[in-house]
Amino acid sequence: MKMAAKTEEEYRLLLEQAAALIDGEDDWIANMANISALLFNEMNDVNFAGVYRFENNELILGPFQGKPACVHIALGKGVCGTAAQTQETQLVPDVHQFAGHIACDSDSNSEIVVPIFNKNKLWGVLDIDSPKLNNFEPLDQKYLEALTEVLFAKQN
């Protein structure tokens, strides 16, 4: 299924797969583990896909696929902390040009981080890294934001 870039149709299928994976399951760890595995295996040129949950006013590592990662990230620090603080998606074509970037994996060159909300409150962030520069584009942002809305949709 992997192609040079994800198409609208491939992303629609990915959303359906994600919804099916979490359907009927309330355990956030199980759900985020499956979503992380799905994204890691289905997205192109990805070396990290996972979540950080927002707890005690910081981000704490949750389920992911990839190399070991930073465990605690302060609000406003790095791409993840910035996404959490601003509550806006951060699409970064070159992480080395991002002020305050935290290099958990020195192989990462581009990144997209999408805030996750549960009951209209920040729950955490979805973090996806790539070893390629400019690996993410607005189409990725559109569908990854849609994916985060599915995660807690039945609980809201």
TrEMBL record:
Name of this chain's protein: GAF domain protein
Span of domain GAF: 10-156
Protein species of origin: Lactobacillus gigeriorum DSM 23908 = CRBIP 24.85
Protein family (similarity comment): Belongs to the free Met sulfoxide reductase family.
One Pfam assignment: GAF
InterPro entries referenced in this protein's UniProt entry, alphabetically: FRMsr_CS, GAF, GAF-like_dom_sf, Phosphatase_reg/MetRdx
